[in-house]
Amino acid sequence: MLGFKVDYFKDKLAVVTGAASGIGKAVAIRLAERGCRLVVVDRDASGLDILAGELASPPIMSLIVDIASEKAVKDAVRRVAASGAIDFLVNSAGIDHLDRITECSYADWRRILSVNLDGTFLMCRSVGQHMIGQRSGSIVNVASWLAKAGMAGHGPYAASKFGMIGLTQSFAKEVAEFGIRVNAVCPGAIDHTQMRAEADRQSVERGLAPARERVKFIPLGRMGEPDDVAGVITFLLSNEARYMTGQAINVTGGLWMN
């Protein structure tokens, strides 16, 4: 048995998108604590600066990247790969917009799909090419419980996350022979994130209940925290999950079970 190695992450290179806040930030902090060399990616330069001051060791790169841009992703990954093997990729960047499908503009639809799904595809493709060459690696995509059950007012977001599960499963089958694992996590209602704050703001503007009022439906009796999800992501990256690939793990406090 290989067993769990405390220093498994030490000096390995991890790329984390959406690292300036929320789940991505929590993942970056956990990986830095375990000795990873970090490349943090976001559009929020000030957020990345704040993150750098909170990490156990500073990132080797902080990259301001629009992951919906094919050229920007290719250029960024080329820079990262020049510093050595890319061991881990966590795709945490994502956006949402509250709107009914019949009222949603095509521009908003495309904006959400371009970041959430296209961006995940572009990062998986570019980093995956390098992982294939080194014949190792682990990728975790941050989906949502809405990747398994749609919700009124979140059609574009749910569609992007359903697509992410399909991408995860297909990619996992394509790269398994190269020693690469690809999994996803499906968070439920996660508090203290920019996305949660913005979704609640839009809900209140429309006379709808904020997410906190759904706590009564969560068996564990509370909203999730970014670190709750980061813990599962860290597990999926680790050698403890060495026989897991193509999975979409719920982190919902029991709100969604399957």
Radius of gyration based on Cα positions: 17 Å
Structural class: alpha/beta
Judging from the principal axes of the Cα atoms, what is the shape?
A: globular
How many DSSP-defined strands? 7
Task: Kindly estimate the percentage of residues that lie in beta strands according to DSSP.
Answer: 5-15%
- What is the assembly state of the chains in this entry? single chain
Secondary structure topology:
Layout: E1 13-17, H1 22-33, E2 37-42, H2 45-54, E3 61-64, H3 70-81, E4 88-91, H4 106-134, E5 137-142, H5 155-175, E6 180-187, H6 194-205, H7 226-237, E7 248-251
Parallel strand pairs: 1-2, 1-4, 2-3, 4-5, 5-6, 6-7
Helix pairs in contact: 1-7, 3-4, 4-5
Question: Could you explain how this protein is built, in words?
Answer:
The chain is an alpha/beta fold. The protein contains seven helices and seven strands. The protein has helices spanning 22-33, 45-54, 70-81, 106-134, 155-175, 194-205, 226-237, and strands spanning 13-17, 37-42, 61-64, 88-91, 137-142, 180-187, 248-251. A seven-stranded parallel sheet has the order 3-2-1-4-5-6-7, with helices on both faces. Helix 3 runs parallel beside helix 4 (106-134). The longest helix has 29 residues, at 106-134.
Give the gist of this structure.
This protein is α/β, with parallel strands linked by helices and 258 residues long. It has helices at residues 22-33, 45-54, 70-81, 106-134, 155-175, 194-205, 226-237, and strands spanning 13-17, 37-42, 61-64, 88-91, 137-142, 180-187, 248-251.
Keywords:
42% helix, alpha/beta, 7 helices, 7 strands, 258 residues
